Amino acid sequence: MSALTDPSLLKLVQKSHANTPTPGKQWHTPRAAFRPTRSLTSYSKRLSTQKSTTATKTKEREMKAEKEEERQKRITNIRERREKKAEKERFEKMAEKMHAKRVERVRRREKRNKLLKS
């Protein structure tokens, strides 16, 4: 037998070129038939998984809301501190220019106005 017609050698040659495209042949890998798996799981099992996912999602939402609330508290605290600091600096600046009793009167008046606005 010659080397070209020997079946064992022919199989070796075909195996070595398995990944290279052959002219006239489809180069895509063969696919399995479409078999939907939705109906393979039981309704009760799907319901239980759905319940567990909804429970985890609600827990996540609660945790995120809690975290956002903490964040907002920190932000408001920082904002209030800055406002107090700015107000204190403003009154100190006023105290340099005018008498201390007058500054105190202005401070009380502004406090009343602030309470009336809110």
Largest sheet: none
Characterize the overall form: elongated
Order of helices and strands: HHH
Low-confidence stretches: none
Strand content: under 5%
What is the β-strand count? 0
The helical percent reads over 70%
Structural class: mainly alpha
Output the radius of gyration: 40 Å
* Mean of all residue-level pLDDT scores: 83
Distance between the termini: 105 Å
SS field, number of helical segments:
3
Describe what you observe in this structure.
The chain is mostly helical. Helices cover 70% and strands 0% of the residues. The chain has 3 helices and no strands. The mean pLDDT is 83.
List keywords for this structure.
3 helices, mainly alpha, single chain, elongated, 118 residues
Structural topology:
Layout: H1 7-16, H2 43-97, H3 100-117
What's this model, at a glance?
This protein is mainly alpha-helical and 118 residues long. It has helices at residues 7-16, 43-97, 100-117. Helices cover 70% and strands 0% of the residues.
